[in-house]
Amino acid sequence: MKDILGTALLDYYNNNYSEDIITESTISEADEMPLPYLFRSYKEMPVIEQKALQLAKGKVLDVGCGAGSHSLYLQNVKNLDVTAIDISIGATEVTKARGIKNCFNQNLFEQKDQYDTLLLLMNGIGICGKLERINLFLQHLKSLLKPNGQILLDSSDIIYMFDQEEDGSVLVQANKYYGEVEFTMSYKGEASATFDWLYLDYNTLQNACMANNLNCELVTEGDHYDFLARITRL
């Protein structure tokens, strides 16, 4: 697969920034993902992300680290033991270059160590792909938790993106969960393969956690249907 994200991050880091990543999905038109935003400082982060970083403790796994902005704050400001992983080779190269000591080009399911905090930000639950995979996904996350560990993740309820009827009902596909989305990314004339991405409303996440013997707590909500959840063992 083409490493669209990694190529763009490397360009920005190496001062070759000339355009942004373009994303398209089954629920939205083409949209820009500004590269500077992926290199944001703590002060530039949304409140939800700031709160998650405040709550992070102990040995941390930053899943889908991107350019490493969250890991940098945890390692350099909070002095935590951080491991950053991403399936993008370019992303991990940038994260290492920015100073993260433990950074690996790795799929989440390759992880076997246990952590005090699992961090899945920027809709990190999205890598689950489809709702039918949520039990397997949560069970693997649970296996990576130390006894008093926590999972901090954010997501969005995207029901607002669908047409609403006069009676208040919403038109969604009958044969799948409305938060299942297919994405492509393109950059400088190159395009990624289509990939699955999952947005979860809080009630669905909470029910999935209960089914997997996990406690799910709503920590805070953002300004645009997004929320931060803290998940722990029962």
From TrEMBL:
The organism's place on the tree of life at top rank: Bacteria
Main EC class the enzyme belongs to: transferase
Keywords, in A-Z order: Methyltransferase, Transferase
Pfam families listed in its UniProt record: Methyltransf_23
SUPFAM superfamilies listed in its UniProt record: S-adenosyl-L-methionine-dependent methyltransferases
EC number: 2.1.1.222, 2.1.1.64
Single GO term (MF): 2-polyprenyl-6-hydroxyphenol methylase activity
Record-level GO BP terms: methylation
Protein name stated in the entry: Class I SAM-dependent methyltransferase
Species this chain originates from: Pseudofulvibacter geojedonensis
